[in-house]
Amino acid sequence: MADRPSRFSRRAVAVCLLLVAAGLPSRPQATSTTDTARHTVLRMLQLNLCNSGRAGCYTGRSMAVAAEVIDTEAPDLVTLNEICQGDVPALRRVFAAVHHGRGVVSAFQPAGDRPSGADTRCRNGQPYGVGLLARVKTPDIPGGVHRGIHPTQDLADPEERAWLCVDVDRRLLACTTHLANTSYRVALAQCGHLLDTVLPTIRGNSGSVLAGDLNLRVGGDPDVRSCTPPDHQRVDDGALQHIVATGGVTICCRRSVPMREATDHPGLLATLVIDDRPPT
């Protein structure tokens, strides 16, 4: 589902159509990623685990269910919202086992805490924020992780929302964020700044994709499409989670993944087709 017509290569769209026609296997092999001279195909999974221990949606079961989903779906990229710092290495072990023998990188960015000037904390005392897992060919690219705190925040909310990006083999800048849930206008400003300013500044010649709980809806006031640039493509889970990609990255084969009421959001799984040809 795209917000506006986008100019993607006919070949990339054809790859997507072939994927849709073939259907997504229920348990893809870890070697299923297509890597050709012209295109790379990656599967991306967005999860909001509500695992701070402080929110009403906390069940204590979301990490176990997330591990099962990662093992079953074998995504190449996983973006994580509402997690504790220790959740990243725990899920990285599952992710690395799925991609046994291949390079894996992980990253975490805590949300800020305005009253203390330090990090927001989970109930277990660990920093709370967002994370990302990626399968890569070259895990030690210098400067491959980018992170920050959004410049616009809801001053009535002590939590300062954060963003996080990882450079995936210089082919794709993969990013995640969890935007403000106390003010739709603040969430819209954070979304616009990230897509219009932050990502274009750091992605270079590569495409980029942002996945996360944006706390904005299609048809809402404001509408999430208000912060999506014209040449970007977007899919969602029917509610607040979205995947947004720049030109040169085609999104297809989106579906929701049940989380068995372990959290208040489903997983959002999509296939990305990246045009590897140099820009003309």
* CA(first)-CA(last) distance: 27 Å
What does the main sheet amount to? 6 strands, mixed
Q: Into which percent range does the helicity of residues fall?
A: 10-25%
- What is the CATH superfamily? Endonuclease/exonuclease/phosphatase
What count of helical segments does DSSP give? 4
Give an account of the 3D structure:
- GO terms for molecular function: catalytic activity.
- It is a single chain.
- The protein is of the alpha+beta class and 280 residues long.
- The protein has a single domain (10-20, 38-274), classed as Deoxyribonuclease I, Chain A, CATH 3.60.10.10.
- The chain is built from 4 helices and 15 strands.
- Strands 3-6-2-1-15-14 form a 6-stranded mixed β-sheet, with helices on one face.
- β10, α4 and β11 form a beta-alpha-beta unit.
- The two termini are 27 Å apart.
Quick tags:
Deoxyribonuclease I, Chain A, 280 residues, 6-stranded mixed beta sheet, 15 strands, disordered N terminus, 4 helices, globular
Gist of the model:
This protein has 280 residues and is α+β, with helices and mostly antiparallel strands. It is built from four helices and 15 strands. Keywords: Signal.
Q: What topology does this entry show?
A:
Layout: H1 10-22, E1 39-48, H2 62-73, E2 77-84, H3 87-98, E3 103-110, E4 112-113, E5 118-119, E6 128-136, E7 145-149, E8 159-160, E9 162-168, E10 172-178, H4 184-202, E11 207-213, E12 233-236, E13 241-245, E14 249-257, E15 267-275
Parallel strand pairs: 1-2, 10-11
Antiparallel strand pairs: 1-15, 2-6, 3-6, 4-5, 4-8, 7-9, 9-10, 11-13, 12-13, 14-15
